[in-house]
Amino acid sequence: MNYVEKVIEILKKEVPEHPYKSKNPFHILIATIISQRTKDEVTYEVANKLFAKYPRPKDLKNADEEEIARLIYPAGFYKQKAKKIKEVARIIDEEYNGKVPDNLDELLKLPGVGRKTANIVLSRGFGKYAIAVDTHVHRISNRLGWVHTKTPEETEKELMKILPKKYWLEINTILVMFGRTICRPVAPKCNICPVKDYCEFYKKGKRK
How many CB atoms lie within 10 A of CB 185? Predict the structure, then answer.
């Protein structure tokens, strides 16, 4: 086991589990769209409200846009997201027979869906090997010294080279929860970090 695997195994034991448990690809897709520039606790609360009333693509396609916006408030940019959500639901219902596509190229054709969102849907919703790189994964991978990259896209490519495939499905949720609780963007809690001995950031003395 190399040091990267050791870090992952330690974090699996130490960080809390991700609170969003849905395996429904459509719900994961819409929740991830809602999550953009929105706090996680808000995302999960409003996503659950939305799906309680409109659980299927057909339901959301036919929903009133203002009602969608009302349900997902106070998510950031809720009016723009409501429009996007309604359009995504329409495309999935009409062009994909109500089923979220299970390949990267088709997912990237959907409005508002980038590589991070697509890879979250593939990994969490379909159990396909994909590495979803959001701000947490990008920041922490660089802090630890696993990669030295400038963009999430570069990080994704480099992580695919160094991470055994068995970790691809769970690396996002592990690092997201680590980033929320300990390895925060500002004032990371290095003093209580369970993997500081493996961390390039810590060893260089950049901690505050």
Answer: 11
